[in-house]
Amino acid sequence: MAIGKNSKIELKTAEQFRLMKEAGLILSAALDTAVAAAAVGVSTAEIDQLFAAELAKAGAKSNFLGYYGYPATICTSVNEQIVHGIPNDRKLEDGDLVSIDGGAIIGGWHADSARTVIVGSADPADVELSAATEAAMWRGIAAMASASRVGEIGDAIDDFVTEKYGQKFGIIEDYTGHGIGSAMHMDPDVLNYRSRHRGPKLRAGMALAIEPLLVRGGIANRTLEDEWTVVTEDGQRAAHWEHSVAVHPGGIWVLTAPDGGAAKLAPLGVKPAPLP
Ligand code: MF3
Ligand code: CO
Question: Is the CB of 70 under 6 A from ligand 1?
Answer without folding.
Answer: yes
